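I wish you would study the pair of lines that follows with an eye to the fold:

===
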Amino acid sequence: MATSDASHVRAFSRLRHRPITRRDFAETLELLPPWVGLDENQRRDVAEAWNWLVNEPSMLAGVIEDLALPRGQRIQAAGATLIVPRSLRQTLDLDGRPQAFITRRIYRGLCDGSFKPMTDREIGAENARGELTMLILHFSQRDYDIAKPYVQNVIACAQDTFRMFHEGYNLRAVYYETGEINDRVAVASGFIRRQYADPIVAQNLPPEHHPALFGLTREQAKTLLPGSPARNCFQNQPPLFTFSASQRRLLWFALFDDSDDTLMPLLDVSVHGLKKLWRGIYERIEDRMPEFFGDTAGGDEGKRGPEKRRQVLAYVRQRPEELRPWSATD
């Protein structure tokens, strides 16, 4: 894997995580790890598919970037997680001993249309029933030398990224296909190694192309003390406000940059449309919890709006279940 040649980054860095956007594709695809096992044609297909996958509610994808570096060199790590429907989980035998290169087969199905991602409503129903399964398709960094302080900082940021993207769901299991090069980080993150149906060594692949499978189920998580990122993502409770899909999408992006100029193009809404979304969020909160805003409730939205926004974002940052689909059937 390539490493950054900017020497000043070791003395000064500005790491942050955020959702992936289309402008990140070229830089992020450079980080697509070899253990996914894609040839050049397949990589091009995946690059094309990401144009619509980026907006799918079942695809959770983020990057870690260093704002101290020039544009085009900032992304230091990237990852993608898919919420897997029950039918695909069974087809792949995720709960048992699946064949290796799970991620490659999933991308193939997404590209040729044989696999359809779950809708927001479908995710909400399985979330409410506690039947959601996630598969971390891949996570990769520019540099894997964990002896370097900078790489350690990237890994620490990755732990925060994992929490932000994965907590708040009512999960039954999380699986993680990665490379053998990442095994120490996967174990330290709280995942347990799982076995493939066939040994990878029999395929005569170079070590950097060896995938490795890890996972954690709800039952396994119950036996562990809270603390590790993987264990913590099984902590959950039902949302109080059950925001609409458009409201949740606004809140999600606002956690990373709440400026109107940033949010409007991401949500494809006008200034009026954005204000309407925020107003709907405030009204829903006040209906469910009248005391939420305290002295800032009611009054001139032009003056009180920014303070309300601050309070809401502080709340959902600590209560990520409010950002997740939830469709209770009873």
